[in-house]
Amino acid sequence: MQNSVASAFVRVSVIVPQSRAMGRGTRWHRKALHCFTLIELLVVVAIMAILVSLLFPSLRLALHNAYLVKCMAQEKQLTLSWDTYAEDYDGLMVGSFDMLSYHPNSWIDDNQWSPDRNTPPAIKRGLLYPYVNTIEVYRCPNDEKKQDTYRPSNHLGFPFSVEWLGPLNTEVYLHNTRKMDNPSETMLFVEEDCWTPVGWDGWTLDTRAGDVISYTWIDDIGLYHLPGRDGMNVSFPDGHVEFWVWEDSRTFARAPTKNPPNGNVAFQFHPGSVDIERMYYAWWGIQKK
Asked: Which residues contact 140 (CB under 8 A, 6 or more apart)?
């Protein structure tokens, strides 16, 4: 083998034997193979790195949007299961409470006193699971913190009145679908980002002020679709699901100084918030005045 070096690139010469004819001697000849230069290889690598850096954000956003669609489908499946349960029990709603030891009508058994809280067994003990029959439906793929992403509105199926949740009368909470006036406008399931270790009810809005909007959040809302989608999936008893885009920047701005880093709007006062107004009317199932 004979090596030769030519300026900026390397030329490799390989001596290859070649038979002249059957039974005769062998003739040797040289065949030169030209390789890429180091500079050329570095240019190609740099171009590939630039292309990847340009495509990666788009691919990540596309995957995030695909998860968003899947979250909507799962929330719709929970809603249809909720409807089927009510049909089987003459309109009786499954309880939005999530503690079977306290109320046997609970949709899941996932509270701070459950030894296996936020695990599949706790969810499977709930009355709604036989209608869902798969644990994956309870968690949005974008939720990386807990097994149960969704929460039903306390207005539907909450077993009793609590003073800090609303006026002390049975009309605050509906328990039968036959008494629901606007199923297409009454909020059912929402995505909740629950930072507190206390979890024993569905999703709650501050209704202590009665007909007056207090502009105070009680429970957190899900922020699973950031970046790119500043909003939350909301389902309704008639079976449809909507993606609500937040209009107030305070809604999706996390507050680590007030709550733990994974919390957002719990117990925060946002005067004049159009997002709270929208949730308020949907919680009650009434049209905006």
From this structure: 67, 70, 71, 74, 75, 149, 150, 191, 222, 224, 233
**Rounded to whole angstroms, how far apart are CA atoms 14 and 20?**
18
Give the phi and the psi of residue 284 in degrees, each rounded to 5: -85, -20
Look at the block and give the residue holding tokens 């030519």.
Answer: 6
The average pLDDT across 7-25 equals: 45
pTM for the full predicted model: 0.73
Residue type for position 190:
V
Which residue type does 30 have? R
pLDDT of residue 266: 67
List pLDDT tens digits, range 100-154.
666 677 888 876 666 777 788 888 988 999 999 999 999 888 887 777 889 999 8
In the chain, count of helices (H) and strands (E)? 4, 7
How far is 245 from 228, CA to CA, in rounded Å? 11
What residue ranges do the domains of the chain occupy? 2-35, 71-284
Q: Are 285 and 185 in contact (CB under 8 A)?
A: yes
